[in-house]
Design a protein that fits this description.
Layout: E1 2-10, H1 30-46, E2 53-62, H2 70-84, E3 94-99, H3 106-115, E4 119-125, H4 129-135, H5 141-154, E5 159-165, H6 172-183, E6 188-195, H7 203-209, H8 218-234, E7 238-241, E8 244-246, H9 253-259, E9 264-267, E10 272-274, E11 278-282, H10 286-291, E12 297-302, H11 305-316, E13 323-324, H12 325-332, H13 336-339, H14 341-349, E14 353-356, E15 359-362, H15 364-368, H16 370-375
Parallel strand pairs: 1-2, 1-9, 2-3, 3-4, 4-5, 5-6
Antiparallel strand pairs: 6-8, 7-8, 10-11, 11-12, 13-15, 14-15
Helix pairs in contact: 1-2, 2-3, 3-5, 6-8
The structure holds iron/sulfur cluster.
Iron/sulfur cluster binds at residues 13, 16-17, 20, 22, 24, 62-64, 100, 123.
Length: 378
């Protein structure tokens, strides 16, 4: 049976972080939360139940799912399990919930585990209070440690944490210290480490336009990335994607699905879906979503064969294992060595990719210049 992932978007947060351009914000009142979760239940009930697919992963992201009461999340899990016919308590499935330290109280973590969640993704971002404050985060490093302690007690074996690097005022030593701290905590099996991108419409964007945001020089930012690679490797973690590191067996199955063209169905505001041929994204406007949950779209597009091939290449190349020609052949009936001969030859000559048997993957230099590689396939 073909595997499929489910994603549920929870758009509410305590406050907006200064760098964040996700579909997230504080709610306007309890009625908005009620209406939103009612809307998601409607959207779920109207979705194709895809009986020919096996639900392999479920991911609650946001926003901050842990911000709202557990009963809302429980309703959604139950509705999904009924609609897609799976047992949420079967631990073979990967079920992730994103939580923020300040809102993930012990009783909520116990409730998540009882609902079937077996993986926790905690937004930490930095361990230095001055950096957390600068980023506009609503928690302290101490809150994070407490959350991990409660998560372990609640029975979570698989915890992931997010870090941001390239933040104004952050040093390479700050990044090292954050990693040391994180990897000394129990059950941290996975790290996602993202370079700060100043997105349009964020507070940081305004500050940059006003000349008030001094990003670290590119060499420093690259050095931080290198240090993350070295420190995680020293602890026995493996980098398996441009921004992701895990102990063996703890790679995120849900995110890996995105990079390997696994179909997924997203529910909620601004949630994206892909059925193998078509991509579509729900509206990011709350009023429009509530009027027609899952029907009001921001975009929808049926991929051409050429676009599917391009997606296979550039999404798959995000993974350090790269892409296998056998998989390409299974999907498209041809060889990428032949279809992209000119592009691959050029990238090989530039030292951005390497060939290993049947596979093509990024080199170390390609990791730093990944966008250049991806552009060759879009
Ligand atoms: S907690 Fe996450 S989703 Fe919410 S505002 Fe901050 S970065 Fe954005």
């Amino acid at each position: 049976m073909e595997k499929m992932g489910l994603y549920v978007h929870h758009p509410f947060c305590v406050k907006k972080c200064r760098y964040c351009d996700f579909a997230s914000r504080p709610e306007t009142g309890a009625a908005e939360i009620e209406a939103y979760y009612r809307g998601m239940l409607t959207e779920i009930s109207q979705a194709d139940p895809a009986p020919e697919k096996q639900i392999d992963t479920l991911y609650f992201g946001g926003g901050t799912p842990s911000y709202v009461g557990s009963r809302y999340l429980k309703q959604v899990v139950t509705a999904l399990a009924d609609h897609y016919q799976f047992d949420p308590l079967d631990d073979k499935r990967e079920m992730t919930i994103e939580v923020n330290p300040a809102s993930a109280m012990a009783e909520k973590l116990y409730a998540y585990r009882a609902m079937g969640f077996n993986r926790l993704s905690i937004g930490l971002q930095a361990t230095q209070e001055r950096l957390l404050h600068f980023l506009g985060r609503a928690h302290t490093a101490g809150d994070f440690k407490e959350t991990v302690r409660h998560a372990v007690a609640a029975g979570f074996e698989n915890i992931s944490a997010d870090l941001i690097f390239g933040v104004p005022g952050q040093t390479v030593d700050d990044v090292k210290a954050a990693l040391d701290y994180l990897l000394s905590l129990p059950r941290i099996r996975h790290l996602s480490c993202y370079s700060l991108i100043v997105e349009p419409g964020t507070v940081f964007d305004t500050w940059r336009k006003q000349g008030k945001l001094a990003l670290p020089p590119e060499e420093t930012e690259r050095k931080m990335y290198q240090v993350i690679g070295e420190e995680t490797a020293r602890k026995g973690m493996k980098q398996y994607e441009i921004s992701n590191y895990a102990y063996p067996g703890f790679e995120s199955r849900h995110n890996s699905g995105y990079w390997t063209m696994m179909p997924y169905r997203g529910f909620g505001l601004a949630a994206a879906s892909f059925d193998g041929f078509r991509r579509w994204t729900n509206t990011a406007v709350m009023a429009d979503y509530l009027k027609a949950p899952g029907q009001a779209l921001a975009e929808g597009h049926r991929l051409t064969e050429q676009e599917r091939r391009g997606d296979f290449m550039f999404l798959g190349l995000r993974r350090l294992d790269g892409v296998a020609n056998a998989d390409y052949h299974r999907l498209f009936g041809s060889s990428f060595w032949k279809d992209y001969q000119k592009e691959i030859d050029h990238l090989l000559k530039e030292g951005l990719v390497f060939r290993k048997d049947d596979r093509l993957a990024l080199t170390k230099r390609g990791l730093d210049l990944a966008n250049q590689v991806f552009m060759a396939f879009v």
